[in-house]
């Protein structure tokens, strides 16, 4: 498929995990992908890995001046953004009573403020008929005692997608969120778990395994493409059946 030939796609947090996998998927479909990361070394490594149809910028999405510089760089090099994957995120996986103000500020700054202003700053370059995909999480659909803060910020990100879908409707810009389940990524590597811990996760999933970053990338590619031209304001759960079904 070449659904993204001639298109420019911006992916925040695109140097590893789901962001990098999505960048690979979209490059394979003809896009020029701009990835962001927080260090020059990681950005350069990702761009080298992705090949000539990729470029990158160092940007902390929680810093508005960094977002301004990012968007200006994209404007100078490409003049437009056809699709945006607001993927950069962070997590504080601790019980509610142990969450500190620093934990709270970091999670809100990246997962909500960062997403909010990434879209706002990119909006002047987003073409009419373009698309935005926001990375949310399965945790917004179910309470979890050690994911209080993370879940709250991801729920806010999903709600932002729905309200933006309404607000950007006159420009035919579609905005959706994606909610990955347990995905084997550097943020949550399956190999870091003991056999018992891994089984406690996979026993709850109908698919019986962790998901792969490439499987999320395929879903993001669908939402960002014209194949999803009538999909707007939705949350696509990619979780192997974790939420919707009970393993036999």
From TrEMBL:
<dbReference type="InterPro" id="IPR036291">
    <property type="entry name" value="NAD(P)-bd_dom_sf"/>
</dbReference>
<dbReference type="Pfam" id="PF13561">
    <property type="entry name" value="adh_short_C2"/>
</dbReference>
<feature type="domain" description="Ketoreductase">
    <location>
        <begin position="7"/>
        <end position="172"/>
    </location>
</feature>
<dbReference type="GO" id="GO:0047936">
    <property type="term" value="F:glucose 1-dehydrogenase [NAD(P)+] activity"/>
</dbReference>
<dbReference type="InterPro" id="IPR020904">
    <property type="entry name" value="Sc_DH/Rdtase_CS"/>
</dbReference>
<keyword id="KW-0560">Oxidoreductase</keyword>
<comment type="similarity">
    <text>Belongs to the short-chain dehydrogenases/reductases (SDR) family.</text>
</comment>
<dbReference type="InterPro" id="IPR057326">
    <property type="entry name" value="KR_dom"/>
</dbReference>
<protein>
    <submittedName>
        <fullName>Glucose 1-dehydrogenase</fullName>
        <ecNumber>1.1.1.47</ecNumber>
    </submittedName>
</protein>
<dbReference type="InterPro" id="IPR002347">
    <property type="entry name" value="SDR_fam"/>
</dbReference>
